Each structure stands twice: as C-alpha cells, then as structure tokens.
Amino acid sequence: MAKLGVIGVGAMGGAIVRGLIASGQLPAADILAFNRTRERMHSLEDEFSLPVAPDAATVAKQVKYLLLGVKPYMIAPLLDDLGDALAAKPVVISVAAGKPIATIEAHLPEQTPVVRVMPNVNAQINQSMSGIAANQYVSEEALAEVRAMFDAIGKTALVPEDHFAAFAALAGCSPAWIYRLIDALAQAGVAHGFKKEEATRIVAQAVAGSAQNVLENLPQGLNPQALVDQVCSPAGTTVAGLLAMEDAGFSAAARAAVNAAVARDQELSAS
Ligand SMILES: NC(=O)C1=CN([C@@H]2O[C@H](COP(=O)(O)OP(=O)(O)OC[C@H]3O[C@@H](n4cnc5c(N)ncnc54)[C@H](OP(=O)(O)O)[C@@H]3O)[C@@H](O)[C@H]2O)C=CC1
Ligand SMILES: O=C(O)[C@@H]1CCC=N1
After folding, report:
1. C-alpha 8 to ligand 1 mean position (Å)
2. Domain named Pyrroline-5-carboxylate reductase catalytic N-terminal: which ranges (predicted)?
3. Ligand 2, residues at Cβ distance < 6 Å
4. Ligand nearest to the CA of 71
C-alpha cells in the first residue's frame, strides 16, 4: 500500500508531489499517481521514477491518504465514479477551491475522514502557505501526518472552515496578484531603460526581501505600515510614488481582489 495517492497531477497536484519528493518528506516510492493525460506526468516520471497507476480507482484502493488534485467541478463526478473503490475510507485530502468538507462528504462513504487544504503554487519551491481544516473523522495522528506533508512544502496554519474563502484569497490566490505586481513594476523599469529580465530580477529580490523583513518584524509587533514609514523619507521619492499609487487605487484594488475572490469562492461553494 502506498502512503499517498494523487489523482490529478496538474499545476497544484504536480507542485505538491514535486515538493514532497524534493524535500525528502516522502520518497517517490510511497506515492501512487494518476492523471487523465499521462504526458502531463512525464517530467515527474523521468525525474523521480514516480509510480503511476493505470486508473483512479487503483489509486483510491491502495493508499492511506488520497489527494484530489482535480479542478473543483470535477470533485463530485470523480468521487461518484470511484464509488466502491473508496470503501476502505482513505483519508481524503481536497485542495479544491470553494468545495466545503460537507460537499465532499456527500460523495463519500459515511464517516470518511476528509481534510481540506488550501495550498498555493509556491509549493513548487517548498514555499507554500497552506491552510488546513478537517472533519471529525480525521484522527489526531492523521491530521498531524497531513500537516507534516504540507509543512514539508512550506508553512501551514489550521484554519476554521468559515474562514477558508478569505484564507484562499490571502494565500492561494495572492501569489498570482504578487506576480502581476512584480511584472508591472518590472515593465515600468523597462520604460526607464532596463532589460525586462534584469528589471524582473531586481524587483523580485526587492519583493522577497520585503516579505522576509515583514515576517522577521511581526513577532516584535512591527506591522508593514511601520516599515513603509521607514522607507518614506520626508519630501522623498518613495512617498511621492506611494501617494501616486494610492491615487491610482492601489489599496482599494487589493481589497477588491480579495472581495472578488471570496465572492467567487462562495459561488463555487453553492454550485
Ligand atoms: N493552481 C493553483 O495555484 C491552486 C489550485 N488549487 C486547486 O487545485 C486543484 C487543481 O487545480 P490546478 O492544478 O490549477 O488545475 P490543473 O488543470 O493544472 O490540474 C488538474 C489535473 O487534474 C487532471 N484530471 C482531471 N480530471 C481527472 C480525472 N478524472 N482523473 C485524473 N486526473 C484528472 C487534469 O488532467 P489533464 O492533464 O488531462 O487536464 C489535470 O492534470 C483545483 O481544485 C484548484 O482549486 C488550490 C490552490 C492553488
Ligand atoms: O484560482 C483558483 O481557483 C485556485 C484556488 C486558489 C488559487 N488557484
């Protein structure tokens, strides 16, 4: 029996598999994977000799933990198709946005343990921020094992399910928004004469350093605005840029992004 089965090895499933193996948390031999299009797993098979099952039911029957890496709308049909293959009640791990535990439970044998996780794409480099919630059938030992898997690919937090949509926006979606910010700043650098690659490297290092500085100062109670104030010299360049950013709606845009993502999560939950 493999420890972890993964059905759907796309962007997120692949990032998790890659991160788990690369971090040493799970050897490839302890994983059994199935993806609808096998070609999508070729790089993992070549790089790590990832064991691959002939179908999803084989994965479900042979693993202790079963990670569903398919799109949210595929969760219900996939579980319905699996049917009896789930009779042994593996611990089901869902990373699907907008799919509450109760919705997943409705397509599983009664009292199946379910863990809901919201990772992010930075799992690819073991830098995810993952939120975790579990139903009452997940033992403490199983929850600790699932948490250890996601700790191996970044940081984790236990999140009450009613905060999951907001968590997903802050941690699951925000990498895309930050990538866009990096690209926008780099593009502005190009307008001032930098090559795109050079500008991107400069901005990415500034963003990485800024995030690290926030994390290191939080335990001392110093919030990001205090760091903003440290950078803004009186009558200086930063405050001029900051005010221009706010005039263009920067903070309002950040709030709007979070609110739209939460609203979309709620739509997905209702569908
Ligand atoms: N991308 C992200 O940053 C994040 C995604 N998520 C969640 O992760 C989940 C997956 O999203 P993402 O990785 O982006 O999507 P992808 O489309 O990249 O991956 C989904 C994978 O599932 C495969 N698949 C679909 N149906 C089946 C099936 N019946 N059996 C086996 N494999 C199947 C697809 O195969 P094929 O190659 O044939 O299409 C594809 O490789 C979603 O639920 C999403 O909400 C959560 C947090 C962040
Ligand atoms: O866009 C999505 O729906 C998924 C969930 C969080 C990140 N990507």
Report:
1. 5
2. 3-98
3. 97, 168, 172-173
4. 1
